[in-house]
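Q: I have 534 residues here and want to know how they pack in 3D. Can you give me a structure?
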Amino acid sequence: MLWQVICYCIYEFRKMGKDNNLLIGVLTKWGNYLGLSCALNLFRDCFAFIFRFKSGLFSKFLLLALVTLLGTKSFAQTPGLIYKPATGAGKAVLDPNGDGYVSATSSGFSGSDYGVQSELKMIAIPQLSIEPHSDISTGSAGGHTDIVDDATRKAVFVLSDGTNLIIRFRIGRASTAAKGYSVLLDTDNTFSGSGNNPGFEQEVVLETGKRVVIYNHTNTTFVEYDLEQHHQRSVAYTTNNSDADYFYDFYVPLSGLSSNPVRFAATTITSASSGITGTISDVGGVNDLAYGGNVLAMLNNVITSFPPTELSSLTEGGVFAPVKSSPPYISGSINTTSTSISGTSTEPDGTTITVYKDGISIGTTTVTGNAWSLSGISGGTLTAGSTITAKAQDILGGKSLSDASNSIVVGQVCTTPPVLGAAISGNKGWNLTWTAGASPILTNQVRIYIYHMSTTNVLTQITTSAGTPVYVPATAANTTSASFQFSLGGGNAMADGTYWATAINEATGSCESVPSNTGFRNVTATATPVITST
């Protein structure tokens, strides 16, 4: 249909007496811009042939025949073909051999578009899970902001050539629309996981139709680079969603980026802007649907598991270290007489949990259904005042040992759990209550956390729509119970799955409570999980 429209417009344009060479030149530039250069020579030659005839009737007949042909035939693009090349010095960076293909040869990709099949030996950014098509938070499913991977979990890539950092996104569809393709960089290895910027100091963005840019979020400055010189587009080997996938490549000088070990998060944005100020469409390396579109939860899980890496080490043949397993969680109080310690984990069944007392292992267990329990702890092992932590490692998944869990001091009394009430009208969040006991509740004394188990068994700690912490509201002198809300956003902001809440009394230094009762969205209610230490 598109080419039929183009043909008709050119025919009408020619009737007005416009120059044929001008028409062919416009067609060439238009086709290049739309990423249709593969069929371009054929179209150009056909139009040039038609325009030789001075008979309007005969040329009209030939043009009609071409329109019919274009309406019934498709012109496939060879996987590996660069359909929108970089200009100027960018060609030597993104297509070093200058053959017009990102594949190793001009024959295109065969069997894969990675490793020996690729001209540039790009290094895949580690993923937490598969990166499925149509998992976007907003935008067109399977479209030009939908990050997709291949069968070996390779969706977003980087490579240092010693001077530049080259970045490659695999996306579900090509488009001329103005969108953002961003790699967010945590350069100081600290990450709050909340707020508009949860902890990124730099960002590299391809802003289509606009520029390539490095944002420095610590001082709100940026350095921009010419779009045409610093990016190219090509056809990937994969065909997610039963149609062609595409590579968007872009680069910036390494001198503009941190020399510290960094952690990455790749995202697409619904506008040609930053992932901090714009609306994120897809987070790379995770299934967004499993998080209910909770962008902060996704970014937190991606960054905390990412192996800090120096950009200068990502040269040809370089690799990332394995992603870290997510830290487990210890539930409830632990006493000197406890014979078991239990908790939860977001890692899959079979993940090894090691429990430590003051940094020394006291035993291991495994995860089953996002829960774990170390039993048979002998008397005298847990001494008053000692600190208990745990670490997880998904060995079968090829992940490294996690950071330490939350800490529980033996003999410390944990906070009273909250009560999860009905969902806020419109499925916008949860109503809760919390009871202090004998004393009134103070301002910013008790913080509330809500957890979500998706229908695909992905466990995340969720945040409010504003990304701010929720505290039990202060009460009057004679009131020890308060009701409040944990808002997740607008209508139907709650993803399907199971929810529960915990509390931490920060004023008294008490440990986190055991989970509350559970709430459900579009799932069958099951018995409330009970996780305790005995």
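Q: Anything worth noting?
A: The mean pLDDT is 85. Residues 56-72 form the longest helix (17 residues).
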